[in-house]
Specification:
This protein has 458 residues and is mostly helical. Helices cover 83% and strands 0% of the residues. The protein has one domain (2-449). The longest helix is centred in the N-terminal third of the chain and has 37 residues, at 2-38.
Length: 458
């Protein structure tokens, strides 16, 4: 048993550490934006990017199912193919259900949806900015940021699909190279455009746009070496409408789940903006630090996606339960470590990201919420990964409805008299509800020791 546990831990870390480095670069990019814009002497530039990036996030990450759904399908198919190869010997056939076929269909869908979003954003942005309650100074800057960033939608969506396939087939070092290269380019361009050229919030948008297209080019290069998705002779069989059914079924639930999640984040930002630009900026700093932890913990979530999906596809139920347990231990321990660090050094860390005294003072008043959410959020992040891996996206969908409608919105309404503390309380309860409901669902699947998943891989 010790050897088995050691072997599982090695597989978890083989996936987790590249994805941790990959994921950490995402909030670090946001922290660089925050630090550069926060030192321009006015909160309006930081506020503009906080609102603009949240709106783009809502529009883009509503389509995050292109990453998660591709990972889910590719991981399970990868496990099924390994199981068949063990029984019947390796096969060179690439039928429509193959992992390469899944990648090709995901890229086609991503290109269509990305182009549609790019054209649709100008029709929606005025109404969304009005809903976000941005100030007269912040609104035109946020509009400019969004108008630039929308142009990258096709590149971003296709990169989602590529990343999902790389993770699902356990090529996490390639996924790491993709994300690190993209975000490193973004950070360098941030410094050039914001610090050296003085382009302020627009500079942050141009830096991200250019980096996202460079990321797509690298992603296409990587998959051309790892798959047969670039062979036109296979495309006709892969493009049949019937072969999109599994993808659309998985992605429907992920779409609704992601829309609800991003609604909560944008609602949180909008309510903070009604309390003034300084509170908006302070909340943005705290959220970036929470996201830093979340993205580190996503290393274990990604490991759960790939390894649980592989175990599910190969019908290895004991392995599946073991992977979930071990990932839970690693995730909880890491979250606790971050919580202790934020508790001891939180005020000093906050001071690194702005030289506006009023913003620093407000952020320090609420930094204990950051500590609590950092520790309590680990269950939500990990169980998302488990459910994606085993294809139980409907549970994620329903869990998010419960956490948003039954928990978050009533808690915010009842806590309005407490101002920003009430807003943070609602967000903390939302995070706890997500983790609790999915953990309870997982335990319910395993009652009586029966195999938790008996659905056929499609």
């Amino acid at each position: 048993m010790r050897t088995t546990i050691r072997g599982h831990n090695q597989k978890i870390w083989a996936i987790a550490w590249p994805m941790m480095l990959s994921s950490v670069s995402v909030p670090l990019l946001g922290l660089v934006d925050t630090a550069l814009l926060g030192h321009l002497g006015s909160a309006q530039f930081l506020g503009a990017v906080a609102i603009g990036a949240n709106i783009i996030g809502l529009m883009y990450w509503s389509f995050g199912f292109l990453r998660m759904g591709t990972t889910s399908l590719a991981a399970r198919q990868h496990g099924a193919e390994m199981h068949l190869n063990e029984e019947n010997g390796p096969s060179q056939a690439k039928d429509a259900r193959s992992a390469d076929g899944i990648l090709f269909r995901a890229l086609v869908l991503a290109a269509i949806l990305g182009s549609s979003v790019c054209l649709t954003v100008p029709l929606l942005v005025d109404a969304v900015l009005l809903w976000m309650h941005s100030s007269a100074k912040v609104t035109p800057l946020a509009y400019e940021y969004i108008d630039i960033r929308r142009l990258s939608a096709p590149a971003v969506f296709m990169t989602f699909a590529i990343s999902g396939w790389l993770i699902g087939t356990q090529r996490t070092r390639s996924a790491l190279a993709l994300v690190l290269t993209t975000n490193s380019v973004n950070i360098v361009l941030d410094i050039i455009f914001i610090k050296l050229l003085g382009l302020e919030s627009a500079g942050a948008a141009w830096a991200t746009l250019i980096a996202e297209f460079m990321g797509l080019m690298l992603g296409l290069y990587l998959v051309s070496h790892h798959s047969q998705a670039g062979k036109p002779s296979l495309w006709r069989g892969w493009l049949r409408l019937s072969h999109f059914q599994s993808m659309l079924s998985v992605n429907y639930h992920l779409l609704i789940r992601t829309v609800l999640l991003l609604f909560v984040f944008n609602f949180f930002t909008a309510q903070g903006s009604t309390m003034g630009d300084e509170t908006l900026a302070a909340n943005a700093i705290l959220l970036q630090l929470i996201l830093l932890t979340a993205f580190v913990l996503d290393g274990f979530s990604f490991a759960a996606e790939a390894l649980c999906g592989e175990a599910y596809g190969g019908k290895q139920w004991i392995t599946l339960a073991t992977i979930v347990k071990l990932c839970s231990y690693w995730s909880a321990g890491t979250a606790l470590g971050f919580g202790i660090a934020y508790a001891l050094f939180g005020e000093a860390i906050i001071a690194l990201f702005s030289n506006v005294d009023s913003v620093i003072d407000i952020a320090q008043q609420y930094h204990w919420w950051m500590v609590g959410i950092t520790v309590s959020g680990c269950a939500a992040y990990l169980m998302d990964g488990v459910c994606i891996g085993i294809g139980k996206t409907r549970a994620m969908h329903y869990s998010m409805w419960f956490a948003t409608v039954i928990i978050f919105l009533p808690a915010w309404w009842l806590g309005r008299a407490w101002g920003n503390h009430g807003l943070w309380l609602a967000f903390a309860m939302f995070t706890l509800a997500r983790g609790f409901t999915l953990a309870a669902y997982w335990q319910g699947l395993r009652i009586g020791g029966a195999p938790p998943l008996n659905n056929r891989v499609k």
